[in-house]
Design goal:
The structure holds two protein chains of two kinds. Chain A contains 14 helices and 18 strands. In chain A, the strands form four sheets. In chain A, strands 2-3-1-4-7-6-5 form a seven-stranded mixed β-sheet. In chain A, helix 8 links the parallel strand 8 and strand 9. Chain B is globular and about 50 Å long. The mean pLDDT of chain B is 94. Chain B has a four-stranded antiparallel β-sheet with strand order 1-2-3-4. The longest helix of chain B has 13 residues. The chains are: A alpha/beta, B alpha+beta. At the A-B interface, strand 9 and strand 10 of A face helix 2 and strand 4 of B.
Chain lengths: 477, 124
């Protein structure tokens, strides 16, 4: 289908997870490649969108990076029913599709039914309904020149599947997204992981949000096991990381893998992870350093900062310091391990935004997670700075009460960089509220359980009398 | 630690240090390896470098090679030059040694290629 501007129409089919992140990812990639695009159907819930794009080359660029995209079809016709689709398809001018019907081109027609199964007979019948198409070439089931696809969409509720699809689409397959990278970089097979390593899908999404491109300089100031740097390097970035945890960076913390014995292998490090995936040449350095302190030359400029700061739940949030005031004696200095004090979330984000404002290049991006209490959340209370524009904000729910949000900030000016960032008190309160809510949920569950026990006790007969055993469990005698 | 990283690093986290740049290098173990040359990356990074500090640092550990002390004009198209820069920035690594603050003399250890920039509480 073409519109007046001579652009082409494409159906983008997405994976059915992390639904809030898709559109932001596509927008970031569009911006990265300088692609013009028009959203014809911009769905936030359905796993597909329809866009108009000037050239197929543009679509291939997006597909070469997107991990939320399953596949992309050049959309020839669609409709609420298969009959409508055929009518629309027949209305297309012959010349438009003629180049795909040449006798030397092999083809195949695939039928996909989203959220419903189909029998072989049904599938064959649907394929044969397209027999009016002037396909002259031979049928080839494996790797044909032209792959045509009929997609039937039956909704998202597997408990309520309609007899007829809600929508049907037909067109030529153009490209798949990069979801293969997700298993390639899987944490299950990665050499060096920890309990806060970010899963590959989200790491790659973050690298796309940061618009990482070949030759970019990327920093993660809370690098941990380097999962975000692996993703950035995968997309061409040269990567730097800092972390306050000396043992972590030297691969000497307790292993988090269940099967692993008491010690990590000798060469576990961020660097070996990158070597594992053949991207060691993009590893610059990791340093043990405190992100609350200035470290870098004032002229140092980064293309992006990609990070997942500690939330203070599983990992402590800390920086070097002491509430006591004392001098360390000379003789103790060599073996002294500096004590750490609590480094609240509010301060973490203050320092992080300050780092971004001071060291991002113009239009450079800061991509980071922030934990929020859902009831208290409000976008205007997110950390902010006059030089940073919030360009994307997607939520991933963690518990009933909490979620984390992936924020993408872009540096929009240089002249107010000396101003301090604004970090609302609500950010500081996250940790306390997380534990308090958790406590309330546990108390509530305990009360419910006791109520249920008392109820069953009241109606019990002599024979069924329950007794409490040594471990406090109720058993029948 | 690579010389590219050294070129961007300061000790200004320390109390009383104003600039803390460039850090001196005491190298005990150096490793020279071969990494893939990316001319685009090198030519983009050159304008961000303190060239003088780079040359001095490389020279202080005996690895300046035939890298010129002054940055030449029109380097973007000079592949031979870019390769020399690539070598000094990315292929020479300090595995064990120290970084030295130019103002206070405080030493920051480097072990397994990783510098430790953590301060003690009384240095903040």
């Amino acid at each position: 289908m073409m519109n007046g501007l001579n652009w082409k129409r494409y159906l983008l089919w997405f994976a059915n997870e992390h639904t809030h992140f898709r559109i932001n990812e596509i927008e970031s990639l569009r911006s990265l490649f300088g692609i013009q695009m028009k959203w014809v159907e911009k769905n936030h819930h359905e796993p597909f969108c329809i866009v108009d794009i000037p050239t197929e080359e543009d679509v291939l660029k997006i597909a070469s990076r997107s991990v939320s995209l399953r596949s992309c079809i050049e959309l020839w016709a669609c409709g609420a029913k298969l009959g409508d689709l055929h009518n629309n398809l027949k209305l297309l001018p012959v010349e438009q599709l003629a180049s795909y019907f040449k006798p030397e081109l092999s083809f195949k027609i695939k039928v996909e039914t989203f959220c419903k199964s189909q029998t072989q007979e049904e599938k064959v019948a649907k394929i044969e309904s397209f027999s009016y198409l002037p396909l002259c070439g031979p049928v080839k089931l494996k790797n044909p020149d032209i792959k045509l696809e009929l997609i039937e969409y039956y909704g998202l509720d597997s408990n309520n599947i309609p007899d007829e699809p809600y929508q049907v689409f037909f067109g030529r397959w153009v490209a798949d997204g990069q979801r293969d990278l997700i298993s390639k970089l899987s944490l299950k097979t990665r050499k060096f992981i920890g309990n806060t390593s970010m899963d590959p899908q989200l790491s790659l999404l973050m690298a796309n949000q940061a618009k990482v491109k070949e030759g970019d300089l990327i920093l993660d100031p809370f690098v941990g096991t380097g999962s975000l740097l692996v993703a950035a390097a995968q997309f061409g970035g040269y990567v730097l990381g800092t972390d306050i945890d000396y043992l972590m960076l030297h691969g000497k913390t307790r292993p988090t893998r269940i099967q692993q014995k008491k010690q990590r292998e000798k060469d576990e490090s961020v660097r070996t992870n990158m070597k594992q995936y053949g991207i060691e040449n993009r590893y610059l350095d990791v340093l043990v350093a405190d992100s609350s302190l200035p470290l870098w030359h004032s002229a140092m400029r980064l293309d992006a900062i990609i990070t997942d700061p500690p939330y203070g739940i599983r990992e402590a949030t800390e920086r070097i310091g002491s509430t006591k005031d004392y001098q360390i004696e000379e003789k103790h200095l060599a073996n002294h391990i500096p004590s750490k004090i609590e480094y609240g979330l509010q301060q973490i984000f203050f320092d992080l935004l300050k780092l971004a404002v001071e060291h991002l290049k113009p239009q450079g991006r800061l991509v980071c997670w922030i934990p929020v209490v859902r009831n208290d959340y409000c976008e205007s209370k997110l950390p902010s700075h006059p030089c940073l524009q919030l360009v994307a904000n997607s939520e991933q729910q963690l518990t009933i009460f909490t979620s984390r949000r992936l924020l993408t900030y872009e540096k929009i000016c240089e002249h107010e960089t000396h101003l301090p960032p604004n970090v609302d008190l609500s950010t500081a309160e996250f940790r306390a509220k997380f534990f308090r809510y958790g406590e309330e949920v546990r108390k509530h569950r305990k009360q419910q359980k006791e109520l249920a026990m008392n109820l069953s006790k009241a109606t019990v007969t002599e024979k069924d009398k329950m007794y409490e055993d040594k471990s406090g469990r109720y058993r029948s005698s | 630690m690579k010389l590219l990283t050294h070129n961007m690093l300061t000790s200004k986290c320390m109390k009383g240090v104003t600039v803390g740049y460039p850090l001196g290098i005491v190298a005990k173990d150096i490793k020279v390896s071969e990494t893939e040359f990316n001319s685009e990356f090198v030519s983009r990074i050159i304008p961000k470098l303190d060239w003088n500090a780079l040359w001095k640092a490389a020279d202080s550990i005996g690895h300046s090679g035939d890298l010129p002390q002054q940055l030449m004009e029109d380097y973007e198209n000079n592949e031979e030059f870019l390769k020399k820069v690539h070598h000094v920035l990315l292929e020479v690594e300090i595995i064990n040694g120290e970084l030295v603050c130019p103002e206070s003399g405080r030493k920051f250890p480097i072990s397994q290629g990783i510098p430790n920039m953590l301060l003690n509480e009384d240095e903040l």
